[in-house]
Amino acid sequence: MSYNYGTSTSTKNWNPTGSTGNRLAFFGTGQGAIVPLLPQFGCGLNGPNTFCFFIATTSDSSDESGFSRRTAWRKAYRFLNRFDPVNINMDRKGDRRDASATYEANRDFFDANPAYVTPFDHKPPCRFPVTRFSNPGMSGNTPALIEIPYSMKLRAINVAGDWDGRLDDSDPSVTWAIGQGGLGLGESRTPNTIEFPFLKTGGPSIENIKVDTLRAVTPAYSGEIVAFRSDTDSGAEGGGLGYMGNDDKAKIYIDITQTDEVLRWNPDSDIKPEEWWIQTFRTLQVKNSDKPSLGFVPFSPTSMEVVSADKNNYIVSFTSFKKFPLSKWKNGDNIRVEFKRKKIIRLDDDRTPWSGAEYENIRYRSIDDEFRDDFFVQAPIEPPILTGACCIDGVCTQKTFEECSEAGGEFFDVGSTTCTDCDDGGGGGSGQQSSEILPFTLSLNGTLEDGTITINYPDGFDATEITFEVYIEDDV
């Protein structure tokens, strides 16, 4: 599988100021418009009034039915971690007086839908169409894009008319658009954290409590995410604890599938990517951000164990001497998993960690680089065979430098196809020889029955060991 690494969508209209102190993302359209922060944007008016960001991703549909997702999830994770929606301005246009309103925007999640793939099964923050027919409204042309849902709640009506601020599509004469206020986004200051709102499940005793989530998990910008372990998960000690929990000790599960170390890992090698990933941070800490007085639960990298070593499902676990204070965590509390002193591979370094990739302190990419794909290795990549023209005993062939030298020949640079003055001394050759057939023309002196056909080979070259056969067919 090949990946589109090193390209980006240029974005220039990221306004650093806004009326509420939040940055605003505008959505340019039409001739000569500036490329928007988000390549595509959609607003759904039914149900919970969710709208979606559409993040373009490298993908294909080779059989015209199913999409093959590539590095889509890592790209979505970066966006999820970096931005929080604050508000959105909507314009309503129709047969009544035009109106507009501002809405509070919050993260949301999709219900399970078999027509879409999710990066993890529990309450996903984004989804990907299984086939180009996943969205019936797209007439068999569902785009291969990441969708990230958010919900909207009315904050203020700016221009009312006879409109009450409700969003619906029951009136066919009404059209909706993103207003001049655009979408307000806040930028997170913690790229090295995973966050989610706490939900207790299991019980009733404290020993049986599982850590779940009220809504979708916000993964780390560098690709780590909290992994869920159910009662049916096998092969891992502590299965059934959910995202984390207290067994004999506190335990947490981290999915590192979308990290640089696993993305660039060749499963056919003897390398263990987790041994390189574990060196990218000092310690792991878990705390309740809404109750800082409870302190944090530390996890040492030395406690890491591999739960699943599959390239598309790479999960590790950590244990701590200190247990989670689950009895004091309340539903809805924000739980933060933080990688202290986290480092990531520099964006323009496409080497694997074990071949000398350069690391730097984790930080958000520039907006211009935000939509780049991440380097991915799925199968061994064989190095090219560096051959060139080699003259051996008057014959020009393709060989490597080593092969040519061992045979006592003359080598004419890697990638060359011709030999200069290659002559065995006995054939009377006078020009260069080529290991490939060169373009030539034919000329006829006389008629086909009693004339002469001449093959005109390029000047300076001998057609050594090349046989030309002429076939003449009569039209019937």
List the helices and strands and how they pair.
Blueprint: E1 14-15, E2 23-25, E3 40-43, E4 50-56, E5 59-60, E6 68-69, H1 72-82, E7 83-93, E8 99-107, E9 116-117, E10 128-129, E11 145-159, E12 175-187, E13 193-202, E14 209-213, E15 225-226, E16 244-246, E17 250-255, H2 260-263, H3 273-277, E18 284-288, E19 296-299, E20 305-310, E21 313-320, E22 334-339, E23 343-345, E24 359-361, E25 387-392, E26 395-400, H4 401-406, E27 410-414, E28 418-419, E29 432-434, E30 441-445, E31 452-456, E32 461-462
Parallel strand pairs: 29-32
Antiparallel strand pairs: 1-2, 2-12, 3-4, 4-11, 5-6, 7-8, 7-12, 8-11, 9-10, 13-14, 13-22, 15-17, 16-17, 17-21, 18-19, 18-22, 20-21, 23-24, 25-26, 25-27, 28-29, 30-31
How many domain regions?
A: 3
Envelope shape: flat
Q: Low-confidence runs (pLDDT<50, min 5 residues)? A: 1-24, 26-36, 425-430
N/C terminus separation: 50 Å
Helix content range: under 10%
Strand residue percentage: 35-45%
Task: Describe the protein in words.
It is a single chain. The chain is mainly β and 476 residues long. The protein folds into three domains: 14-187, no CATH class; 193-363, no CATH class; 387-462, no CATH class. It is 5% helix and 35% strand. It contains four helices and 32 strands. The strands form nine sheets. Strands 1-2-12-7-8-11-4-3 form an eight-stranded antiparallel beta sheet. A five-stranded antiparallel beta sheet has the order 14-13-22-18-19, with no helix packed on it. It is flat. The model is unreliable at 1-24, 26-36 and 425-430 (pLDDT under 50).
